């Protein structure tokens, strides 16, 4: 049953992406919306084992994050929205600098168990 469940988790999004090009309703709703609907339905009608879901999530999220960057066109960001990219980098630098400064300033008042 676990193999069938994993197969459905893989085949349903593939079918929805294919259906977007074939059916007007699929294109109008979009594959992500339909995937959420199918996922909610599948999760409620056929509750999976927790270990199975942990394995599927671990196997799919890890390669999905770098694949998001494949279509990002980072060079186009700098060419088309130079001001936005510069402000983002300045914002990122400011956040890192403020975080490091906060660690340095508040270190005497912390404890090893502060986060727990």
What does it look like?
By secondary structure, the protein is an all-alpha fold. The chain has 2 domains: 1-72, no CATH class; 74-116. It contains 6 helices and no strands. It is flat and about 55 Å long. The relative contact order is 0.06.
Write the topology of this structure.
Layout: H1 2-22, H2 24-29, H3 31-45, H4 50-70, H5 74-80, H6 82-106
Helix pairs in contact: 1-3, 5-6
List segments where confidence is low: pLDDT < 50 over at least 5 consecutive residues. Answer: none
The number of strands is 0
Element string (H = helix, E = strand): HHHHHH
Number of individual domains:
2
What do the pLDDT scores average to?
A: 85
Percent of residues in helices comes to over 70%
For the CA atoms, what is the radius of gyration?
A: 22 Å
Number of helices: 6
How far do the termini sit from each other? 39 Å
Specify the overall morphology. flat
Quickly give the structural class: mainly alpha
């Amino acid at each position: 049953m676990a193999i069938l469940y994993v197969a459905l988790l893989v085949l349903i999004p593939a079918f929805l992406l294919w259906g977007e090009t074939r059916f007007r309703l699929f294109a109008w709703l979009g594959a992500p919306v339909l995937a959420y609907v199918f996922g909610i339905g599948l999760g409620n009608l056929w509750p999976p084992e927790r270990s199975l879901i942990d394995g599927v999530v671990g196997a799919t999220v890890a390669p999905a994050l770098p694949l998001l960057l494949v279509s990002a066109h980072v060079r186009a960001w700098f060419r088309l929205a130079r001001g936005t990219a510069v402000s983002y980098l300045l914002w990122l630098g400011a956040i890192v600098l403020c975080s490091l400064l906060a660690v340095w300033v508040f270190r005497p008042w912390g404890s090893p168990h502060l986060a727990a």
